[in-house]
């Protein structure tokens, strides 16, 4: 909100369900609505509800969906459910250079002369959200926001690319070595930083630790977007029924195996 204000972009914060969005579109007389992308069912259903409500209006509103969640848009990466990282990687590598580019500078913003957004009472809003989930403890290891995300990525004290990247390739799969991980997942998930920004910054520093940077880009782009491919093209992505047959068979065959370590 603060960044939008410095660029003279009005920031409207809505609370409630998807039906609040068409009401705002009507009130502002908007001619276009731009939505971010998520492959998950609740988000897709919410967007369908918004589009359905707008389609019932007499006024024409164009709806665009932009996959800022990924580096390569999910529909551009592949048009079908991919079987493995190997098949997916070859498709991604053909188009990655087209999409993995620096973001363009934001041009001059047309002055806003419509309804002005109300001041946001962040304290009350946070208290309301917390009261709805009183049994969920607040975390203390992760500060929210874009600035905190950039600090986690490039910070001079404990930044992933600046201080910890060298051990990523060798230690990232050891649960007893959490500092080998990037710690960027919550920032990526909630949109406080983009995978594209992380990838661009990592490529700039590849000469410092080629194997670790390559491993990070594999996880950040190929493996992460393969997961989105699965969720987008597999309607049963959140059920064992959606797993490949070989995966279900492997789970069944080894269900009773004794394991040296059990993690929860």
TrEMBL record:
Positions of the Photolyase/cryptochrome alpha/beta domain: 1-74
PROSITE patterns membership: DNA_PHOTOLYASES_2_1 (PS01083), PHR_CRY_ALPHA_BETA (PS51645)
SUPFAM superfamilies from the UniProt entry: Cryptochrome/photolyase FAD-binding domain, Cryptochrome/photolyase, N-terminal domain
A matching Pfam family: DNA_photolyase
Sample GO molecular function, one term: deoxyribodipyrimidine photo-lyase activity
Alphabetical list of Gene3D superfamilies matching this protein: 1.25.40.80, DNA Cyclobutane Dipyrimidine Photolyase, subunit A, domain 3, HUPs
GO biological process, one term: photoreactive repair
Protein name according to UniProt: Photolyase/cryptochrome alpha/beta domain-containing protein
